[in-house]
């Protein structure tokens, strides 16, 4: 296996974000993409990451490969990559070899872990609501809510997306109307669901890799946040709802 | 009551500064201004804040109103306001409602506190010394003094303002002569007084709202620091002196 | 003694770097230079600092003088100097007087310490290897190595400088080939030696005073790092090797 990225930033940013939720994970490398599907340790959130082969200047694999890596370590190494470096990934001596080629050549080896875990599968979910907007609008709303509470209620109603949070004494409400830059697809019904702000704050960091986020949810049902660049990268998160007697 | 600010930064910056000295305080809203007069918990410093009605694009009050608020909470909410937001203050359901109107509409409610405290009054003080200068010159002198000691002696003598600090082993002396940008109004006498650096460091943050500070004091007598923009905002601090046997 | 610097930044930056390794030290002031030679408390590293008299706009000493100072205190005072200040050093009342002259005049006095310590001497060392390069290339390599290990092995071989680090499970290798901007002077033999990354990280901060670093070492022998500006300043570090059974 030998994979070369001329622009390593999608990988760098994505791993940095994912490592806040998951500490060890298995990457599957097929002829189409490098893919990671992982649950956070509390089983509340799932991460799905795909870096497509079309991102790579060299993408040479003999067979599908699966390697488990400590994401904290991988993040630390990827932090050292600069915009001028080419990054090559290889397997060598049962380790993952990362080679940075710029004005100097720098090589890192990271141990491959043995993870005895059942294959994660992305659940099939159907969503009556899809909101597409600039990540900054959504991130700002989550940060607003974070001031007053630990969970947030998403409500969609008649072309408006509302984000409400109530603390012991204070509350916050953010109203995002449909507009040229905010698309809200939904039916007639008012749909409402509650999610953890702590998780959402980690997930909105996905805005580093895309200038659009898609937000999908249903009543007391998981939320799906997706950040993507077509043919390049996909980073999505599925977050369990908090039900009222939480 | 309905008050709207097109430029919320005076309120935002002032509350951020005041909250370092006072955690809860009562605002009095009259037809002229929003006003706050409060002592710090150690009874060493008083804050006087006025945001004049001429700052507001909408200033609608039926009668004088007084509301007590936790300044830490208020600061956190005001931090979320951006330069593009209009800020409207209202009373609703016995709470203070803050509405930010920009590309989205964001609404916060903060609880109104019951403070059983006697009305604070600004003491009548007369000062033989008034120094007016750029806040950066004064702030820098306080930071210099902070390296060597916990208190600082202000001295005015023949057109010179001196700031002296002596620690156990080290000392610092800053000399600010009268100049085009530093006005020193005083009599013949040498006047000297000592103040806490810890408090002064919090007070000089007032430089965020004005590009001039006025410094007034007397021998072993309170200090008054004032930051203002005419017809807009006034933030002043009164600080008790430290007497020699402190 | 009266010494005036129109550009105090060499002194400011150097003391800031040295104070990370040594907390108290003796300066020797001769007609040529201010000089400091000191060992770190663990006796692993030596610092040699020289600020030449040609750096000064006024350099008036009657006789060679030696003064011991707490470098942490000196660093704090020098942090307060700005690019527009002239800095004058004098002895006054058995203290070191530092006077900053800019738009205001600021004076600090620092106590002179009594250090009962034998005179430090720079050991005579001979090096078969000298590498000269941009400090950023070298600093970046040390930071790379820091991710995986606590010590680093320097290897010079046939026109290549290699920096290798091995942790329990991960490793890093940086290859710096000779080039227009990297000069490698050495003989035929492969030369290899191991040093502490913790110390190296403090020493590479010397890059603030020079845009070139010289790296000299030998097999299981001390390392010498030198940062200099001709006729102005010299900051060099000697670091004991870590031998294999460390």
CATH topology of the largest domain in chain A: DNA Polymerase III, Chain A, domain 2
Low-confidence stretches of chain A: none
Give the CATH superfamily of the largest domain in chain A: DNA Polymerase III, subunit A, domain 2
Oligomer state equals homotrimer
Strand content of chain A is: 35-45%
Count of the separate structural domains of chain A: 2
Provide a concise account of the structure shown:
3 copies of one chain form a homotrimer. Chain A has 246 residues and is α+β, with helices and mostly antiparallel strands. The first copy, chain A, has helices at 9-18, 71-79, 135-146, 197-203; strands at 2-5, 24-29, 33-39, 45-52, 58-60, 65-70, 86-92, 95-101, 105-111, 129-133, 151-157, 160-166, 171-177, 183-185, 191-196, 213-217, 223-229, 233-239.
What does it look like?
The structure is a homotrimer of 246-residue chains. With 246 residues, chain A is α+β, with helices and mostly antiparallel strands. Chain A has two domains: 2-111, DNA Polymerase III, Chain A, domain 2 (Roll), CATH 3.10.150.10; 129-211, Roll (DNA Polymerase III, Chain A, domain 2). In chain A, 15% of the residues lie in helices and 44% in strands. Chain A contains four helices and 18 strands. Chain A has a nine-stranded antiparallel β-sheet with strand order 6-2-3-4-18-17-16-10-14. Chain A has a five-stranded antiparallel β-sheet with strand order 5-1-7-8-9, covered by helices on one side. Chain A has a four-stranded antiparallel β-sheet with strand order 13-12-11-15. In chain A, a hairpin with a 2-residue loop joins strand 7 and strand 8 (95-101). The radius of gyration of chain A is 19 Å and the shape is elongated. Chains in contact: A-B, A-C, B-C. The interface between A and B is medium-sized, with 16 and 13 residues. Strand 13 (171-177) of chain B pairs antiparallel with strand 9 of chain C, so a sheet runs across the interface.
